[in-house]
Amino acid sequence: MESTSATYELTKLDTPNDMLSKFHQWANGKPIIAAFDVTKPGHNSYYFLWIDWHRNDNYYLVIYAHDKSTTIAELNQTIEEGGITYLSWKYNPLKRDGKNDIRKSYFTQTFGSRKMEIPLPSSLSEVEVFLDQLFKLCHNRVRADRIVEILDPSL
User: Is the CB of residue 129 less than 8 Å from the CB of residue 58?
Assistant: First the structure.
């Protein structure tokens, strides 16, 4: 099944028996609601998985880099406010190079906060805005993760 909007191309991945196989060792065999290859033409592509990430009936939206090398974000916290449900995510780098404070500071200074709250779409017309926000989260995350390389190219 494929769906297109003015901005995004979505291709649903096969999930036989409501699981992925031959995708990535962290995702294979876990219960899944749906998985999509999401492309913004001229920009990046990501895999969006609605998956029981820890096999405990707590489903996450896990966003994988398109090369499947790593996850960009794992969102599972929701907040209800004013009748709207938001996915809540906080930038928390876990690199082992001693420079996570620089990344956190950069993220906060550049994007206003380490926390993002993204309203879940309640209608088809809100899906594109939802995807815009998720792509912004991914862009911000990757940019902040790489800031120490940009500030000090010798790394």
Answer: no
Distance from first CA to last CA of the chain, Å, rounded? 43
Distance in angstroms (rounded) separating the CA atoms of residues 68 and 126: 27
pTM of the predicted model over 0.85: yes
- List, for residues 11-33, the tens digit of each pLDDT value: 999 999 999 999 999 999 999 99
In 3D space, the residue among 109, 105, 36 whose CA is nearest the CA of residue 66 turns out to be 36
Dump pLDDT digits (tens) for 64-77. 999 999 999 999 99
d(C-alpha 61, C-alpha 52), whole Å: 9
Q: Burial-class residue 9 by CB neighbours within 10 Å (0-12, 13-18, 19+).
A: middle
Distances (CA, A) of 66 to 85, 104, 122: 27, 24, 27
- The amino acid that residue 7 corresponds to is T
